[in-house]
Write a structure and sequence with these properties.
Length: 275
């Protein structure tokens, strides 16, 4: 597979693929049946000299689709292991079943509240039906790339900036569902959609930073004010519970704890005034 696809990891599928119905090839007709029979007889008569040209090896993570006289050979995709074919009648197409990645370069997207964004994503997918991959789409990699771009613009354009920043996991899940339904007829299964980066305009970044700083300052002021209110309530409750004698002792204790090097003028009031 070529194009924008980059291989990541190894995730081998089953021999028959998963999901999607298996497409059966049509009948070859009388001419095709005669050619096939004659070819088999020729291979048997010249065995083992022609045997080497009638065998291909399919790797564990690959599957092979055989086209005989332009039609798909009946049955599912072949492999892994040795597969037999008729060289002058068959065309063997191999497909990689490992997970592929599609990187979408930063795209200019306009949100629902008219905020321009630069967004780039990575989509992970794999082929689950090799027959559909070769018969339903001309270039599966390019088709998947353009489908991801269109889905990205449509999905992000339907949400506001706040939704994108707070609800991105759910938005990515909906994108996966849309991509899966769109690429399923090609024999592709979308596995994951990851947002790599989201760039805001410089002016909007400064506005958001100023707003966040103002919120933090207001929150800090409220915390300090609440602390002062609680402290004043505690002091008032303590003063109401102290008797004049206890208040006098507390007064003398405070004087004893004052630094001796400080210059302090102390006014001593009679207890009767406090009463």
């Amino acid at each position: 597979m070529t194009g924008v696809c980059n291989k990541v990891g190894v995730e081998s599928g089953s021999g028959n693929g998963t999901g999607g119905e298996v497409r059966q090839g049509g009948t070859l007709g009388v001419v095709g049946a005669v050619l096939t029979l004659l070819s088999v007889l020729l291979i048997l008569l010249t065995f083992p000299f022609t045997a080497w040209s009638c065998v291909q090896v399919v790797l564990e993570f690959e599957r092979a689709v055989i086209f005989r006289l332009g039609r798909v050979v009946k049955g599912s995709a072949k492999g892994p292991g040795l597969i037999w074919f008729i060289p002058w009648l068959d065309v063997v197409q191999k497909v990689d079943l490992r997970t592929f990645s599609v990187y979408i370069c930063p795209q200019q997207v306009l949100t629902a509240d008219s905020v321009p964004l630069l967004v780039d994503v990575v989509v992970f997918y794999r082929v689950v039906d090799p027959t559909l991959w070769f018969t339903r789409v001309q270039n599966g990699c390019d088709a998947t790339h353009w489908l991801v771009q269109a889905t990205l613009r449509a999905a992000l354009g339907a949400h506001t900036l706040t939704d994108l920043l707070t609800q991105w996991p759910s938005i990515a899940t909906r994108m996966e569902e849309v991509l899966h339904s769109g690429s399923r007829p090609w024999g592709v299964q979308v596995q994951r959609v990851e947002l790599r980066d989201l760039k805001l305009p410089i002016s909007l970044q400064r506005s958001l930073a100023s707003e966040a700083e103002a919120e933090r300052t207001a929150r800090a002021t409220m915390i300090v004010a609440e602390g002062e209110v609680k402290a004043s309530r505690t002091l008032r409750e303590a003063a109401s519970q102290l008797s004049p004698v206890a208040l006098r002792l507390r007064y003398l204790q405070t004087l004893a704890s004052v630094d001796s090097s400080a210059s302090i003028v102390v006014w001593i009031l009679p207890t009767g005034i406090l009463q």
